[in-house]
Each structure stands twice: as structure tokens, then as C-alpha cells.
Amino acid sequence: MTADPYATAADLVARSAATYAASVPDDPADDGFFGPGSVTWRVSADLAVPVAGLRSLLMQALHPLAMAGVDQHSGWRQDPVGRLAATSGYVTTISFGDRATAERAAARVRRIHDHVRGVDRVTGLPYAAGDPALLLWVHVALVESSLVAGDLFGTPLSAEDRDRYVDEMVVAAELVGVPRSLVPSSVAELERCISSVRPELRCTSAASESMAYLLAPAGLDEDVAEIWADVRDGAIAALPAWARDMYGYEAPESLTPSRRTEIRQALGILDATFLAEPGVLEARQRITLRIRAARPS
To answer: pLDDT category, 255, cuts 50, 70, 90?
Structure first.
């Protein structure tokens, strides 16, 4: 018996919160691959994370081979919220977990990727989820989305910290199997990488269908649905114009200071709702204490 996507959507916050709480370690063996003094920790704790996550999925889905792997091998139609929560949990583990835990999580992902192979029905091209080129696209879409969302709706980084963040995140790509030599380590390299992939991108029917669900999940609680509409608007506004054109989305209304404030307020309410879920406040406190302990006296 498959899960009812309308029922699972209603649990969007609860299921995401449970995964988050479980992914932040109680007693880590070490500071992991980034550590409490890293830019990555700051970015991962920013209020703009939901916009960054949704934008990154919109970008990632435009690669027809990456989308074909998701469409043909994952259970997103049966349980889209579960897949979203699992992906979010993986990113949280990689960001805040100790090295051994992060390496185990990455090894599980690599094993799954080993079995995800096929032929894209749109382009007729073969794909393999473990292909470094596809993994690299997923990586750069996430990293760039975090920077753009932070600039618009969170805490913008300095030019130096933007480069530092891109450089820190190289290890995240390496963990899933991308050779270091292929991974951008500066904002300029990141932008060149995205530009080089653009000719391969297109909006397939699978991309359009999956993203339509994520932008407006049916079955959400009324209050959460209202907040999610602001997250959706923020993610679409944060897309580059060429990506919006591929999806056929209308250009959003100008992001006036008042509209940006509205979206930030919605993100704050969503975060407060998230914190009220079991285990989340304690997980946040563990992160905060580690950051404070890492600061020079």
C-alpha cells in the first residue's frame, strides 16, 4: 500500500523537524568537516534555508538526466514529503555531524546511486546517478541557491565569506564522489560552472510535475500553506530569469523592501513553528553551544 501524498503533505513540518532533530548529534566525536567556526554552519542555520532548499530543487530538476534518475527510481510520487525530509536530513548530517557520521551518510548515498541507472525518455541519453557531472550540478545548484537566498531573505555574506563558503563546500561534493579538481572553490568558478551546464538544461514534464507539487503541496494545514506560499514566491523570485522562463513561471512582482520583509517574516514564523516540534529546540541549542564554545575568549 503506497503512502497518500495528500496525507503526508500535512506532516511537512513535523516530518522535516523529526529528521532535523535526529541529524544534529548529541555528543559528536569531532567537529566534522566544517566545524562551528565555519561559514557553512552560519549558512546552514540561516532563516533563508527553506527558500534556498526549494530554489536548489528547482534548479537541479532542470537537468534532464538528473531529473530522470529521480523520476524513474525514487518514490517522490508516493511520498514526496518523505523524500524532501530525507534530503534535508542528509544535508544537516553532512553540515553538523562528526566526520564518521557524515562519511557513513555519504557512503549510503553512494550505494544508492550505484543502482540508479537508466535511459532518459526525453533526450534518449543514458544516465547514472553516480556520474560526477550530475552530482556536480546538484552540488552547485545547492551552493549557489544558499548564497542567493541568503542575500535576498537572510543574512548576506561578505565577498570574502562567499568565496570561503564555496571553498568549504568542496568537501560535500567530494563525499558523494565528485573529484576535487572538478568542484568550484570560489564564487567566480561557481558561476562559470553553472554557465557551462546551461546548454544541457531543459524543463521536462517530470521536472514540471514534481516542482508543481513542491511549490503548492495539497493537504497542508491552512496556516502552513500560507507561509509556504511566501517560501514559494521567494524561491521563484530568487531563480535566474532563464530558469523561470524554462518553467514558464511568470516573473514575480518586484521584490520591494516591503515584500522582502513579508517573506522574511513568513520565514521567521515557519522557523518558530519548526522550533516548537519535539527535539528541534534542543538540537538548535546544541549547535549554538558549540558555536559559542568555538569562539575565542
So the answer is: confident
